[in-house]
Amino acid sequence: MNTLRSVSVHFALLCAVAMPPGAHAQTLVWEDNFNGPGIDGNKWTYDVGNGCQIGLCGWGNGEMQYYTSRAENARIDNGRLVIEARHEAFQGMPFTSARLKTEGRMHFKYGTLEARIKTPVVGNGLWPAYWMLGTIGVWPGRGEIDLMEAGMAAAIANGTANRRIGAAVHWDYNGQQADYDTSYTSPVDLHADFHVYRMTWDPQFIRVSIDGQQYFEFAISNIEGASLHEFHQQQYLLLNLAVGGTYTGITSPAAVTAPLPGRMEIDYIRLYQNPGSQLYVGAQHAAPAGRFGVFTEQADTSGRLNFGQDAELYLWNNLTPIAQAPFEGSNVMAYRANAGAWYGLGIQTDYRNMAAYAGGTLKLHLKTTTPSTFKIGINTSFGDSWVDFAAGGNQYGLVRDGAWHQVSIPFSAFHDLDLQAVKQPFMLVADPPAAPVEIAIDKVYYQSR
């Protein structure tokens, strides 16, 4: 889905050949046939907005739509997932659409992925995409696999917009963005009917086909000078229908001539196991209700993080450890921040399904005398969500008197929180303070109702 280019490395040879008969693995491990009354929240979630909320206005590609979770833009209709782009003013944008993803619900490494998709009439200005993102790191170091994209500017220019599709991979190469992409022109208009897109991903290759015709191949092993580790880690799926953007070459609403509403329809998606496959299904890894320890040595928890094994504490900026007696046990997060620079820390873990804690509370013990502002946050598939502590304020049980006090923040106080896909269960950040700050944090845990 990303269109930026900085390093072009041609590691793969593309040949339009039929996929080998053995490419379709036989053990089905995950699927969605879209036969239910609505979109399954245990399989899909949404990206909502225009990208500005994560510092990527236009989603980094100059797109002109606002993604919503409304039924007008994403719904189940007659056994199919429908993603609909509409020409309507919404939240300051001229178009609306939807972007769905399996982040926190289903991730996998290696496998045969098959989807039956019908694209809309894309010329000019619609950009349907079926793609994947890695679960580890920051883009492009997390890796991206674009299985199918349509509506590219070059196809618009030569009159093949509704027959041409592209596939690509993006990764980090010696600290720079690297890309490999190719395209394929179908003999028929792709919006006229459904077509089967199949990816086979194993430790050696990523291959993609349409109706049995291979149009993309990329070698991911034994490449001199490139580890390509991004493509040996779990990824999750995304489906979206963008309006405009650099991929299409359409950057103004007036230039969008594709018929609207435009629909991308998905009949099914099925994942089959390949040798070496890994599969994470969030619904099968839900943390039990009760008390979940984020940073605590208390034994009265239904589960907890183990630092150095499944969690790490990161000091992001301007924090120096100081001596401080813990509130409990033998460990404490206690730091000094200098004046004039922001400070912050975060606890990173694998994806955690904390859905059982909806309606619950984040609890921690905090000790400080600083009158300055700071905020406490949680990072999920929806991005960062914060609760502000105003200058001098004593919200949620905070007392700034230099003694330990329990702070209790209901999860309902956090905006846009996806507890099914928690990646950083605790963060603390502050703008540059006017004077040095000392702050200590201990016994951090989630409490269900």
UniProtKB/TrEMBL annotation:
<feature type="signal peptide">
    <location>
        <begin position="1"/>
        <end position="25"/>
    </location>
</feature>
<keyword id="KW-0378">Hydrolase</keyword>
<protein>
    <submittedName>
        <fullName>Glycoside hydrolase family 16 protein</fullName>
    </submittedName>
</protein>
<dbReference type="GO" id="GO:0005975">
    <property type="term" value="P:carbohydrate metabolic process"/>
</dbReference>
<dbReference type="Pfam" id="PF00722">
    <property type="entry name" value="Glyco_hydro_16"/>
</dbReference>
<dbReference type="GO" id="GO:0004553">
    <property type="term" value="F:hydrolase activity, hydrolyzing O-glycosyl compounds"/>
</dbReference>
<feature type="domain" description="GH16">
    <location>
        <begin position="23"/>
        <end position="277"/>
    </location>
</feature>
<dbReference type="InterPro" id="IPR050546">
    <property type="entry name" value="Glycosyl_Hydrlase_16"/>
</dbReference>
<dbReference type="InterPro" id="IPR008979">
    <property type="entry name" value="Galactose-bd-like_sf"/>
</dbReference>
<keyword id="KW-0732">Signal</keyword>
<comment type="similarity">
    <text>Belongs to the glycosyl hydrolase 16 family.</text>
</comment>
<dbReference type="InterPro" id="IPR013320">
    <property type="entry name" value="ConA-like_dom_sf"/>
</dbReference>
<dbReference type="InterPro" id="IPR000757">
    <property type="entry name" value="Beta-glucanase-like"/>
</dbReference>
